[in-house]
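Is magnesium ion placement plausible here? Inputs below.
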Amino acid sequence: MADTPKRTDVNQLGEFGLIDHLTKDFGHRQLTTLLGVGDDAAIIDTGGPEQLVVSTDMLVEGIHFDFAYTPLKHLGYKAVAVNVSDICAMNARPQQITVSIALSNRFSVEALEELYAGVRLACEFYGVDLVGGDTTSSTRGLIISVTAIGRAPAGRITRRSGAKPGDLVCITGHLGGAYLGLQLLEREKQVFLSNPEMQPKLDGETAPLLERILKPEARTDMIDLFAKNDIVPTAMIDISDGLASEILHICKASGVGAIIEEGNVPIAQEAQLQALEFNLDPITVALSGGEDYELLFTIDPGEVEKVRFLPDLFIAGEITEASEGVQLHTTGGNIHPITAQGWNHFEG
Ligand code: ADP
Ligand code: MG
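Reply from A.M.:
I modeled the complex. Tokens:
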């Protein structure tokens, strides 16, 4: 009897394990490839004083968005914004994008015009040019993939790997809102499915949360602020998967640990209230909820005066030695290890 070929389920490796597994043996042939897989964007040498950064992100119907509550124009805008966010995470400025779509015959020209109205709005807002893409069919649903190209002076480009013990951990903006916005939309969808006569119960108080999930913004304003105030973070990442996952990425890439102060993690008041209404702990939402697209970065403690009074900037912790692990110091005075799922109540 012939041997059955080996079949490993991709879930056994997880997303990052799978990426490592598939890309580990590639190496680089080009001297211009300064940084490949493993950061928010790759870094490419131009031969001049500036370097290019390149990043791709794909959004898939039914996985990343649901047309029950995602307007096409918002989707087009978001597909660009999330890619621009990865360029920001390198401390670079976005300049060009390509947009590729796969679509079923469910989508009309008018629907695609709406999608591209959102893409255009984002191009205008972020000052980027649409320079290409690809269009093809899919058997079911819509897929949109965007590649963004940015640029920055070589000395300003920020990787995930430069954090040192003693550096301060900083966060732009507030966390948790996008996840709560998504929970609200999911709740209203379920209500609608069980009774289509019911009108959505979404009011002025929930509007900022809905905006966080439906129309996220990349923090290009922070990149400008860093340049103006002569700030170069030691490490940076954008917060697409929740604070826990992102601080773990920085710590792993930099070979360090960190301690995050629960009381200093920025969570907007409306998010705090909504979390409690859903019976969720606000810090858990900030750690594990995704899609806020704020920036998480570290700076040398000698630079603290440069960031202390900047608007929308919060110092939430400190980088430690790797041996200390990645930890949360709770407002109750306890210390818990931070795990990719958030934080573990049962250890520490
Ligand atoms: P981000 O959350 O910043 O968009 P990801 O977690 O999607 O980054 O990806 C992590 C790294 O792995 C990036 O450098 C990305 O370019 C790379 N990567 C992801 N998927 C693949 C793939 N299928 N082949 C090669 N590289 C990939
Ligand atoms: Mg990223």
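Short version: The radius of gyration is 21 Å.
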